[in-house]
């Protein structure tokens, strides 16, 4: 049985189902990260010792590089969708491959940052700032891993759908892209909030 | 379709350059010493909001989306603001903590001493 509104638009919402679904999911994600951001502000405002927690020990150049890597991955992700819209599967593979490379690059840089902290005896239990830092960046990192799994599937076995249902596959990439841009969006706020301000 | 997509590609390229520039600006601004701490924080967050707007409007296509999505996002913003400011309201006691907590058949369950000692 064919699932309705995978390709054609629902008359009431003007959207295909997966797009509505991902936006509702992203709304819940806003609440998840919003709650943690709120906790961060609360802890920061109410803790008189915040300035002594070693925020300056964070590696700003590495985090800046990571920001550039994630922004690049967002562009390559949207370009992979454009490539499918232009019926160019070869370019899709190229851009999706680049997106995956950037995603792994982000995680590797994050790994270097984390191990550097651990080597200096800095753990989530050390102080309030590091608890917030590891919670927020850790949760964001989990989202990056989730994105890699989804994009990896569409780069590998999931690409077969292009031969049978090209429009549905293009919609899937658009939805995966919306998620990935959200992950980028969260980092855009995490970066100054944790490293710079 | 092809012309439309080529226009999109041009926009994505410009947004990409803009985002990298703003990232550099964020880092640069963090090294400026402001007399008032909040000015620096406000500037950093303002740049982050501009970057967020560029990603949401262009990469996530929110500059040309269906009204159903906008409605969903408006509700999200309202709930987000409530979530965001509720702890601050509580912290500053703007929600006015009651003097007692009346539960269990209307009896006073707990008196609250605002000076710190609970009875």
Structure description:
The complex is a heterodimer of chains A (197) and B (119). Chain A has 197 residues and is mainly α. Chain A contains 6 helices and no strands. Chain A has one domain: Cytochrome c oxidase, subunit III, four-helix bundle (Four Helix Bundle (Hemerythrin (Met), subunit A)). The longest helix of chain A is centred in the middle third of the chain and has 31 residues. Chain B contains 3 helices and 2 strands; from the N terminus they run H-H-H-E-E. A two-stranded antiparallel sheet of chain B has the order 1-2. In chain B, helix 1 packs antiparallel against helix 2. The mean pLDDT of chain B is 82. Chains A and B meet through helix 1, helix 2 and helix 6 of A and helix 1, helix 2 and helix 3 of B.
Main attributes of the structure:
heterodimer; A: 197 residues; Four Helix Bundle (Hemerythrin (Met), subunit A); 0% strand; B: mainly alpha; 3 helices; flat
Give the helix/strand layout.
The complex is a heterodimer of chains A (197) and B (119).
Chain A: H1 17-46, H2 60-85, H3 89-119, H4 128-155, H5 161-164, H6 166-196
Helix pairs in contact in A: 1-4, 1-6, 2-3, 2-6, 3-4, 4-6
Chain B: H1 2-30, H2 37-59, H3 67-91, E1 100-102, E2 108-111
Antiparallel strand pairs in B: 1-2
Fraction of residues in H or I helices of chain A: over 70%
**Helix/strand/pairing class of chain B, anyone?**
mainly alpha
Q: What about the largest sheet of chain B?
A: 2 strands, antiparallel
**Approximate shape of chain A:** elongated
Which spans of chain A have pLDDT < 50 for at least 5 consecutive residues? none
Radius of gyration of chain A: 19 Å
Please indicate the percent range of residues of chain A in DSSP E strands (runs of 2 or more): under 5%
Strand order of the largest sheet of chain B: 1-2
CATH topology assignment of chain A: Four Helix Bundle (Hemerythrin (Met), subunit A)
* Distance between the ends of chain B: 72 Å
């Amino acid at each position: 049985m064919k699932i309705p509104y995978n390709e054609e638009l629902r008359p009431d919402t003007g959207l295909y189902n997966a797009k509505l679904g991902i936006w509702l999911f992203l709304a819940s994600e806003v609440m998840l990260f919003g709650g943690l951001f709120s906790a961060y502000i609360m802890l920061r405002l109410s803790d008189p010792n915040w300035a002594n927690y070693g925020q300056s020990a964070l590696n700003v150049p590495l985090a800046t590089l990571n920001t550039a890597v994630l922004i690049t991955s967002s562009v390559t992700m949207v370009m992979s969708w454009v490539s499918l819209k232009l019926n160019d599967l070869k370019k899709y593979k190229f851009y999706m491959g680049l997106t995956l490379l950037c995603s792994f690059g982000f995680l590797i840089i994050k790994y270097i940052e984390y191990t550097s902290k651990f080597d200096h005896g800095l753990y989530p239990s050390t102080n309030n700032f590091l608890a917030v830092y590891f919670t927020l960046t850790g949760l964001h990192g989990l989202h990056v891993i989730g994105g890699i799994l989804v994009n990896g599937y569409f780069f590998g076995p999931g690409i077969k759908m292009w031969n049978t249902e090209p429009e549905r596959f293009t919609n899937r990439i658009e939805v995966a892209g919306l998620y990935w841009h959200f992950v980028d969006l969260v980092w855009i706020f995490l970066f100054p909030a944790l490293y710079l301000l | 379709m092809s012309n439309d997509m080529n226009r999109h590609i041009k926009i994505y390229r410009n947004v990409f350059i803009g985002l990298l520039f703003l990232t550099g600006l964020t880092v640069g601004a963090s090294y400026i010493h402001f007399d008032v701490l909040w000015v620096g924080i406000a500037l950093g967050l303002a740049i982050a909001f501009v970057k967020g707007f560029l990603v949401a409007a262009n990469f996530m296509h929110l500059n040309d989306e269906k009204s159903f999505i906008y409605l969903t996002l408006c509700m999200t913003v309202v709930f987000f603001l409530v979530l965001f400011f509720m702890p601050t309201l509580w912290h500053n006691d703007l929600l006015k903590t009651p003097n007692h907590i009346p539960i269990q058949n209307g009896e006073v369950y707990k008196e609250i001493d605002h000076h710190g000692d609970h009875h």
